[in-house]
Recover the amino acids of this structure.
């Protein structure tokens, strides 16, 4: 679906009750809005209601604050958590990378082609290996080397760089460093990671070697939000590829790269288009 020039996205999460959809539609009608797309999901086991609605305000454009104020009364009535986002808008995204460049290059190419509506004001790395990609796309490249001893200081340097560029989303494009709980608490925006395995199988380091040793017939990749629990954050997207007994570890790595690129790109697109709602350690993806 193409972006509407003046569309608004409303995200809602609350306990399930009768009448929510009708009341939300009524508020949008009173604002002069025209609903373009709407989807909702009820987790019956947990009693949770989640909804994404996109609507146009061509005849009566309003600032986001006024729209939020109009939603506030029913939000209070239903004890909703809600967000209002105006499209089109480009999120300011920092890409963190180490030595492997395939996910970085793929994201930059998709942005250049207009497939990802993001602004990348900085690329951050603990190595200078991928600097050529930053030069090619004329993006500032910040290098902060790290060792076990310097990790706390290095993370503070990275945080300062993200703050300086007013980053709204961090993407770990094979950034081979475990982010500390202190970093994640201070970063102030979501962090999306690509894990080169079909989680929850083969967590941690070298999953392709683990998969090879187990003789798996499918390999996968998982994009998830980073949390303090390594490789256990809410999952946004996953995919798999069939492999066979003739595949070496190197073959699995090569084939896995294709999966990592596509899964990470989809996850970033879904987040940027506000199609992901997190509740507990799960997500609802309205795609």
């Amino acid at each position: 679906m193409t972006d509407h020039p003046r569309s608004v996205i409303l995200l809602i999460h609350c306990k399930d009750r009768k009448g929510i959809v009708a009341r939300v539609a009524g508020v949008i009608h009173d604002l002069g809005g025209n609903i373009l797309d709407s989807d909702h999901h009820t987790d019956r086991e947990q009693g949770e209601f989640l909804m994404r609605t996109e609507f146009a305000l061509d005849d009566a454009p309003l600032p986001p604050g006024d729209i939020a104020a109009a939603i506030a009364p029913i939000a209070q009535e239903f004890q909703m958590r809600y967000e209002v986002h105006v499209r089109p808008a480009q999120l300011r995204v920092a890409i963190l990378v180490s030595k492997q460049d395939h996910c970085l290059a793929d994201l930059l190419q998709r942005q250049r082609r207009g497939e990802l509506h993001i602004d990348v004001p900085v690329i951050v790395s603990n190595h200078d290996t991928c600097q050529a990609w930053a030069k090619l796309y004329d993006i500032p490249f910040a290098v902060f080397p790290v060792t076990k001893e310097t990790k706390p200081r290095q993370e503070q340097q990275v945080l300062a760089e993200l703050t300086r560029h007013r980053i709204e989303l961090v993407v770990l494009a094979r950034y081979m460093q475990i982010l500390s709980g202190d970093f994640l608490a201070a970063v102030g925006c979501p962090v999306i990671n690509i894990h080169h395995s079909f989680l929850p199988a083969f967590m941690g380091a070298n999953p392709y070697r683990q998969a090879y040793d187990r003789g798996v017939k499918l390999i996968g990749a998982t994009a998830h939000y980073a949390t303090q629990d390594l490789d256990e954050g809410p999952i946004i997207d996953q995919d798999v590829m069939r492999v066979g007994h003739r595949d070496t570890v190197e073959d699995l790595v090569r084939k896995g790269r294709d999966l990592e690129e596509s899964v990470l790109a989809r996850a970033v697109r879904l987040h940027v288009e506000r199609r992901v709602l997190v509740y507990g350690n799960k997500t609802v993806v309205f795609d």
Q: What stands out?
A: The domain at 91-285 is CATH 3.40.50.170 (Rossmann fold). The chain has a mean pLDDT of 91. DSSP finds eight helices and 13 strands in the chain. Helices lie at 20-30, 64-78, 102-112, 131-136, 151-164, 181-186, 207-214, 249-272.
